[in-house]
Amino acid sequence: MSGAGKLWVVATPLGNADDLSPRARQILGGAEIILAEDTRRAGLLFRRLNLERHGKLVSFFEHNEDKRLPKVLEYLEEGLTVALISDAGTPLLSDPGFTLVRACRERGIAVSPVPGPSAPVAALSASGLPPLPYTFLGFPPRKKSQTEALFLAHRDTGATLIFFERKTRLAGTLEIAADILGDREFCVARELTKEYEEFLRGRLGDLTGLDPELRGELTVIIGPATAGGRTGEAELAQLVAEEGGAGGRPKEIARRVAARAVGWTAKEVYATMCPQ
Length: 276
Known about the structure:
Elements lengths: L5 E5 L11 H9 L2 E4 L2 H10 L7 E4 L5 H13 L3 E4 L13 H10 L2 E5 L4 H9 L6 E3 L7 H11 L5 E6 L4 H12 L3 E6 L7 E6 L14 E5 L10 H13 L4 H11 L5 H8 L3
Parallel strand pairs: 1-4, 1-5, 2-3, 2-4, 6-7
Antiparallel strand pairs: 7-10, 8-9, 8-10
């Protein structure tokens, strides 16, 4: 669109202020409109970065994105420069902005990324889990049945799975992952680039060592299924007999067997133990 402005999609630091790129600093300093999830946090970010702001801060978050969209498009069609930021990292990845970017593309308004920090990529790069292929899932759904369906849809893709999770839901989500995906390596990346950054590794088959009181921003990486063929039914039956001899409820036995078997989830093991 001739004479239209431009939308910049700008990545901002996850925690370490030094990760702001010179280009991002230049764009944010010169933008006439800055769209932010939380204008208060955005103001604090500008002060922390010692970044002089000339543009107007406008709130732009999940629950007002549709309402704000016409006015933002109007700004752009008037020729203004608009910068989109999230609370941290790269916008659109579990943050608002997709509707705006798509609308700009449909109207011929220029959109350009200013790449930089991204929690999924940063976590994956330092996790020690297979980097390719990978699939980013955002935040898992709140309902258990929907989370089960999500993991089931990605169970057999061979991809490393990356997602965000809240600390109060982490243990429950990993238990669901163990039931659906089976025993796989996982890593929880906590407080990326901040003072208390931490990478916690383990296996879904044994979640006993995971601290339920983890704090901070959490990014979870789950590796692909173990390479090699699936454990045969005869060997599976032997494992069921061994674990059954150790006692416990059927679901507990199924989970222990799944931790030892290759390519079997706890639900599948349980189904062989207790056929309908």
